[in-house]
Structure formats: structure tokens, C-alpha cells
Amino acid sequence: MASDGELRIGAIGDLHCPRVSLDELQSLFTQVAECSDVVLLCGDITDYGKAEEARLLVAALPVLKGIPVVAVLGNHDYESGDAETITQILERQGIHVLDGTSTEIGGVEFVGVKGFAGGFGDRLLQSWGESALKQFVRESVEEALKLESALAKLRTAHRIVLLHYAPIIETVIGEAPEIIPFLGTSRLEDPINRYGTTAVFHGHAHHGTVEGCTQTGIPVYNVALPLLRRQRAQHPPFRAITLKLTKSAETA
Ligand SMILES: [Fe+2]
Ligand SMILES: [Fe+2]
Q: How far away, in angstroms, is 160 Cα from ligand 1 center?
């Protein structure tokens, strides 16, 4: 359980069940449970968005012994056109699946949205030209608006943002330059900065960089499992952060 004045967060993304087997999940969750008061799943929980893949994830949940789990879906969870069923399977087992919504745990608000692509900074894709391109940009804008609207309602001192797509370019560096605009968008960074978020966790960029920060210095952690396995091989394959309720500090 959380100690007075702190909350321990264990975060991981891109499990892509069944790329991670039940045995591997149970072993991973056992390690997470040892040092977490809340567990974050940053999307791509399933590989093809199939119900049986989501059931594999929930089969490993007893290992967490009731530690709250907060999740957002990723693009892979939408692949079979039935994200609603994936969400229901997860929620029935008590997972908080966020989509422009928030949940409070231990005095900290967790806000989540999948996010979308669109590029970064002055190379941000703009809504101009063909209707298909405008629709693409609209999706990106709407995800950012959902995040902004959820953040605007919060009054707690600490709020943690969960995303699947990246809000800054720094944590996607390492990926092939050709695909960087498809890995996230700085449209997601604007509300994060404006509402004074404590920390951000995302996945999706399997070949990116494990951490960076927004233009206002908010820490951003890329917790995609394949990336953590590669770049933080000396650590357990998840990110553990202890949130001091006055400030945040990384512990492992
Ligand atoms: Fe992924
Ligand atoms: Fe993804």
C-alpha cells in the first residue's frame, strides 16, 4: 500500500498479448506488484484487438493482488474493430480504462487518452487539402481536445497523464525518421503543459527513447515493453516512479 505522502507507480505499455505469454505476464506482474501502489498500462494491450488476447491479460491480474490498474487502449487494440469489447473485458476485471476520462487513486488523478499521430513542432501536419487528410488531422485534434477537457476538470495537485501515442518528439527519437509523424503529435503536449501535469507515460514507439520532457520540463516516459527490454536491460521491464505528493522522483 501507499506510504504516507507518496504513491508508487509501475508503468508499462505495448504488451501485445499474446506476444507476451501468460507465464511472462505473471512473472512481470509479480515484479510490478512488489514496488507499485498503482499499475499503468499504456496501450497495445493486445496484438490484434481480439477478445481472447484481452482475456489473456486479465488471466494474469490475480498476481497483482488487487493493486489498482489504469489503462488506455492503443492502435493495436482497435485492429479488429471491436475496441468496445476489449474495454468491457478489462473493465469487468476492475481495470480503469480511460478515454478522455480520469480516475483518482491515492489522492492523485490519472487522466488518459489514446492520442493519435500528426507530427511534432513546426512540422505538425496541418488541416489543408484533401478531405482524407483533413479527417486525419481532425482525429489528432479531437484526441488532444479530449485530453484538455479531462485535465481542465481536475483540482488535485498531482495529475498523471497516460497516452499511447507520444506527445513529444524526444521519446520517439531512435525510430526511422520516415515514421516519426505517425508515432505521436505535439498537439497532445499543449494541454499537458497548460494544466501543469506531474508526469506523462506513453508507449507505441518501440524503438524510441525511454524518457524526455516537455517544453515546460514535465517528465515524459516511453514505457513500451520492447524498448525497456532493449534500453534498460539492467532494470525490470517496467518503469517504477515514486510520486512524492509534493514532487516526483524516480526510484528504479
Ligand atoms: Fe505497440
Ligand atoms: Fe501502438
A: 21
